[in-house]
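Q: For a teaching handout, I want to show students what a protein-ligand complex looks like in token form. Below are the inputs, and the small molecule is coenzyme A. Please produce the holo structure.
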Amino acid sequence: MQTFTYAERPDLALRTGEIEDTLAPFMGYGEVALRHWAKLRPELPELQLILYDDENDRVVGHGRTLPAREADGLPGGIDDMLETWFGDGPRPEADVLSAMVAVVDRGHNGRGLSRLLIEAMRDLAGREGFSSLIAPVRPTWKDRYPLIPIERYARWTREDGLPFDPWLRVHARLGGELLQVAPESMRIEGTREEWEGWTGMTFPDDGDYTLPGALVPVRFAGGRGVYVEPNVWFRHRVG
Ligand SMILES: CC(C)(COP(=O)(O)OP(=O)(O)OC[C@H]1O[C@@H](n2cnc3c(N)ncnc32)[C@H](O)[C@@H]1OP(=O)(O)O)[C@@H](O)C(=O)NCCC(=O)NCCS
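A: Here is the structure, written as tokens, with coenzyme A included.
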């Protein structure tokens, strides 16, 4: 198993369509992400990663990163970092690399591969001259506990002291330090009809709805549904 940047192996970067992720479809409709996500590939290929199974010639994962600034406080999360970097305002002087997402193909989940992507991201941060990688982590089991506040969920631990959540656990095991929560990392908003199309559910009335793959409830008011995804900031120091 090997990792490459998109710049190093553009041939493999073209094959990310081979990766099947487990994210709920509605996660693809964040307004800020729709506007800017696709710029990561052409504008920063040296900061995007492929996980490649060389024995079987399969692209089995990808990792995305973006430079960010933390000197004035941690960014708000995914939307904030995308807008700050790609939006109309002046670009900040970056002092850290941030993970944006790590994905391992669903057929390869549970085999410890995600670690390789985080380690490769941390190496990238070092190569870019940053002293750490930060990551707004999306806890993979939070959708099972959508009514528990993220601040409390993030602190749940097992008997061995490691985080309860499997994905937070991977970060902790690799030496990551839990910093704080990002309560509004990503916003997804749509009409009732759009949400029904994204989820296959019906939303007959205004109110709060829990739904598969959503870390917190989606709130419907006046026929529009708003989902504001919380994440958990981790820091991985380089070297
Ligand atoms: C999060 C993700 C990258 C983890 O990748 P992975 O390679 O499957 O993770 P690992 O094999 O390293 O497993 C991590 C932990 O989750 C558990 N796990 C992951 N997938 C599992 C599965 N299908 N069945 C059982 N356990 C699983 C593992 O047991 C492990 O816990 P442990 O360390 O206590 O054993 C992957 O699930 C994914 O792509 N998810 C969708 C995208 C996403 O949410 N990315 C994160 C955004 S920041």
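A: Two things your students might notice: The chain has a mean pLDDT of 97. The two ends are 22 Å apart (CA to CA).
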